[in-house]
Write a structure and sequence with these properties.
single chain, mainly alpha, 3-stranded antiparallel beta sheet, 68% helix, disordered C terminus
Length: 357
């Protein structure tokens, strides 16, 4: 039997963790052992897992700091709302699928528009430009009005009166956001999306393109010297990350009765970046665990009232210190080496007292 490589084993463990966690939560939910607070967080947890994995593709695998990830999420969110409410005659699950797919496509288009000029920048300059992009998208959404009637979709940058609709429904009402959304997102849909995002990301990382992307991260000059197209592979990672964020945004928007553009501001981008940093740069499994724990933690500490956010901040600082402490990292590596040593089978002839000279 062919022995699995370490990377394959790690990927299978990651899939197993996600599947087992879903099975446990679904069982507890069906049997009524999940509180209303936790049940309301299941879809957002799936969304933030997808966001953390997608951002890790840019920050951890590509090695570029992006602070405008919430902008791509908002593109997918409001696109998903328009698609889902425009096709009201279709079954709910099909509308959700269309919303996620089209939201991801338009977010990818936004990724191309942003990525082509800004990926020539590096470091702090790239972070500043992506931050500006996120704020620009938020401000654009504050000034967009969309409605639908028997004649199709209507767009305006002024007000709802300028839509010129014959009756119909206002889908996006400028700074008031998208009101009257029909909730279509489910925990099962969130779980499926997590698996899709995980599969796309892990397969990209293991592919030839993924190795080229990591080569650019490790040494741009050396990668370029051996013929790797820097712009192509950086844009590939950036656009893939944007598309996955857009899909997560569509799922997020269709989990609420209304959403506002201000939800997708700088703070949301920083929150997702915190998931990535605490989970480990380039560590997909760590991003999943960090996004889950840090999404649940504020609600789990709600009984402490005014002190819960203080404790949340202290936990973040402690985790940051622990995960970046060289002494603790060295100690953990020694423990793993000792465990690996004890798991090794005894060499042939070791039993029986050695050689027979």
């Amino acid at each position: 039997m062919k022995k699995l490589s370490k990377t394959t084993r790690d990927n299978l463990i990651t899939y197993a963790i996600v599947i087992v966690a879903f099975a446990i939560m679904q069982t507890l939910s069906v049997t009524g052992h999940v509180s209303n607070s936790l049940a309301g967080q299941l879809v957002p947890i799936c969304v933030y897992i997808c966001m953390a994995i997608s951002l890790n593709l840019t920050v951890g695998i590509l090695g570029e700091l992006s602070l405008g990830h919430a902008g791509f999420m908002s593109v997918g969110a409001f696109t998903g709302v328009i698609v889902a409410m425009s096709f009201s005659g279709l079954p709910g699950w099909l509308r959700l699928v269309l919303a996620i797919v089209i939201g991801g496509i338009l977010a990818a288009v936004a990724g191309v528009i942003v990525g082509v000029p800004v990926l020539r920048l590096r470091g702090d300059y790239l972070a500043i430009v992506t931050l500006a992009f996120g704020e620009i998208i938020k401000n654009l959404l504050n000034n967009i009005y969309v409605g639908v009637d028997g004649h199709g979709l209507h767009f305006s940058m002024k007000d709802t009166a300028s839509l010129g609709m014959d009756g119909g429904t206002v889908l996006i009402n400028g700074p008031m956001g998208a009101p009257g959304i029909q909730k279509l997102s489910t925990f099962v849909a969130g779980f499926i999306l997590v698996l899709i995002v995980l599969t796309v990301t892990l397969n990209l990382i293991r592919s030839r393109s993924g190795r080229a992307i990591m080569a650019i991260r490790d040494n741009r000059i050396a990668a370029e010297s051996v013929g790797i197209n820097i712009t192509k592979y950086k844009l590939m990672a950036f656009v893939t990350s944007a598309a996955l964020a857009g899909m997560a945004g569509a799922l997020y928007a269709l989990n609420y009765s209304s959403i506002l553009p201000k939800k997708f501001d700088f703070n949301t981008s920083i929150l997702v970046l915190v998931f990535v940093v605490l989970g480990g740069m380039g560590n997909i499994r760590g991003s999943i665990i960090a996004a889950t724990v840090l999404t649940i933690l504020p609600e789990a500490l709600r009984f402490l009232n005014d002190y819960r956010m203080l404790i949340y901040a202290v936990v973040l600082i402690l985790v940051m210190l622990v995960t970046n402490n060289p002494t603790l990292k060295a100690g953990w590596e020694q423990i793993k080496e000792r465990l690996a040593f004890w798991r090794k089978p005894a060499p042939a002839g070791a039993e029986g007292g050695g050689s027979n000279e």
